[in-house]
Design a protein that fits this description.
Number of domains: 1
Order of helices and strands: EHEEHHE
Distance between the termini: 34 Å
CATH topology: Alpha-Beta Plaits
CATH architecture: 2-Layer Sandwich
Strand content: 25-35%
Strand order of the largest sheet: 2-3-1-4
């Protein structure tokens, strides 16, 4: 993996319904503090509207070094210490290497104009 490639981390998981409020509090704190890190390009949390208590993290890091620094932060270590106890089953995590990212040409889909 090239050091200069940005990394996109996607994860999905189901939260124990009785622990939903605790998960959300912990996840919002993680999100807020992670977004302040120098190498964080984006850090988002989404809930699946079709599946109760299923959530997704989506975060992008400038490079491997930025991600490595993130893994050492107190806020991530705190989250990791409580996260497994809030889940039903195992989380699914993927790391994507992004060599290039640019706006898509949507003309093939009939998109035209400024609002496309």
């Amino acid at each position: 993996m090239s050091e200069g490639e940005s990394l996109l981390i996607t994860s999905s998981f189901h939260v124990e319904p009785s622990k939903r409020d605790e998960f959300f509090r912990q996840a919002q704190e993680l999100k807020s503090k992670s977004q302040q890190e120098d190498g964080c390009l984006t850090f988002e949390l989404f809930e699946d509207p079709m599946s109760a208590n299923r959530f997704f993290f989506y975060h992008q890091w400038r490079d491997r070094e930025a991600l490595n620094q993130h893994t050492q932060t107190p806020h991530l270590q705190q989250f990791i210490s409580v996260f497994p106890g809030l889940l039903v089953g195992q989380p699914h995590l993927l790391i994507h290497r992004l060599a290039e990212s640019k706006p898509a040409d949507l003309s093939a889909f009939g998109a035209t104009g400024k609002n496309a």
